[in-house]
Amino acid sequence: MSLTEQINTDIKNAMKAREKEKLNALRDIKAKLLLEATASGAQEEVSEAQENKIILKLHKQRMESYALYIEQGREDLAADEKFQADIIEAYLPKMMSEEEVKAEVAQAITDLGAQGPQDMGKVMGALSKKLAGQADGKMISTLVKEGLNNL
């Protein structure tokens, strides 16, 4: 079952259960997926990589809003953002562990023949495409810096 089909099923279940807050989060995901599908001009399904990217972006936005509301002392709004982030989190792709990312970084450094920190852009470009939606960009960047500085 594709992510879009799963979201549609979960929307129906949330409507039947009268879960208004959950329904809002699910409808937001569905809207973003539909927007991405129609943005290309064709009425095609969104690829799994695009779905993962959208879900990650939505989750990140909710967590940033949550942190901002906490910082400003707005616990009422923070609770809503946290609830929606938790709903979206259920649809996040499985993330790679730090050890798996380290192995990918080492392999990329070897494959690209990186000589040192000056090759950071080349290594990051390759890894960002390869690991999109599977690993956090900050973690990749940190591990690439570490790997290049140890050459």
UniProtKB/TrEMBL annotation:
Q: Which UniProt keywords apply?
A: Coiled coil
Q: Does the keyword Repressor apply?
A: no
Note the coiled coil stretches, chain numbering. 16-52
Origin: domain of life: Bacteria
Which GO molecular function annotations are given, in alphabetical order? carbon-nitrogen ligase activity, with glutamine as amido-N-donor
Q: State the protein's name.
A: Glutamyl-tRNA amidotransferase
User: What organism is the protein native to?
Assistant: Lishizhenia tianjinensis
